[in-house]
Every structure is written in structure tokens, then in C-alpha cells.
Amino acid sequence: MTNTGMKGARSAAAALAFAAILGLTACGPSTSNFPGQPTGKSGPNNPTGEQQRESIFGEDGLKLFGGGSGDGDQGSGIGVNSFLWRASLDTIAFMPLTSADPFGGVIITDWYQDPKTPGERFKVTVYILDRRLRADGVKVAVFRQTKAESGDWVDAAVAGATPLQIENAILVRARQLRISTIEAAESR
Fold this sequence. Notes:
The protein is of the alpha+beta class. Helix content is about 30%, strand content about 15%.
């Protein structure tokens, strides 16, 4: 190898070693408080760092299976109002459940066929929309099918008042549960 080739190889090796050292030092922890450095406390929306950062899960964070104290009417461990949740389950208890998600607030039943009317069946989906006990905190969707002459089930219209009647029954039951809880707490 020539003298010029050796110098080029050494220069390349030195440049490679310098790049490796520079890369490794960039991976280490930083203790600098450079203004652009994210510290987790301050930023463009909180320049002084005095305000607490908000979370997408709310001020209490994500709570699974209870943990911490909360409002009595919100329950612990579920993402929706506990009175609306229990009242929904009580109201549609005669129907078989397919799915019940207490974190998302969705209850889905399987098809229910009343023995008195064998030619039709119903399915209900209950959506609990709020953590507070409110009249607009529950939404019900009802699906109806009738049996055709061929024996197949065919979608049919549902009376407009049916979902509203179920919502009202859920709200009445939720109020009863809340009142009984308050009375039990006062009697202690």
C-alpha cells in the first residue's frame, strides 16, 4: 500500500471512530436544561412549568379495577356512571347478553324471542354516554326481526317509542339505585 493510501485509510478510520464516539455520546442521558429540551414539565402551552400537564385520560389518569377515591355516583373501576350501568343491566336482564363493556359503556344483547310471539325477535344495544347520572347519558338502539314464510328472519321496523321507553326505564331504575345508595349512606 502506498503512503497516500495509508493516510487515506487512517483518515477514514479516524473519521469513523469520531462518528462512533459522537453517536454514542448522543445516546447518553442529558442533564442540560437547554430551552428546546423537553423536560416533561414545561412547553409551548405551559412555559413556566407551574401548571400540571393534562392527560388524555383526565385529571385522575386511567384507572383500572378501582383504585383511588372518586365520586360516589361514578363508581370505581368502570368508565361510565355505575348507576346507569347497573340500571341498564337490570332493565334488560331478561335478554341474553352478547357483550358488556363497562369501560366503553356498551351493552349488547343477543336475539331475544318472547315465547308469546314466536314470529318476532328483538336485539338491544345500550350506550352509556356519560360518567354523570343524566337523562341524556344513556342511548338505546332496538333491532327487530320477523320470521318470513320461508323461515328466514327479516329485518322489520321498530316502533319509535320503544327505545325511548327502555331509556326511561333505565333512568327510573338508576334514580332508584342512587336514592337507595344515598339513604344507606345516611343511615350509617
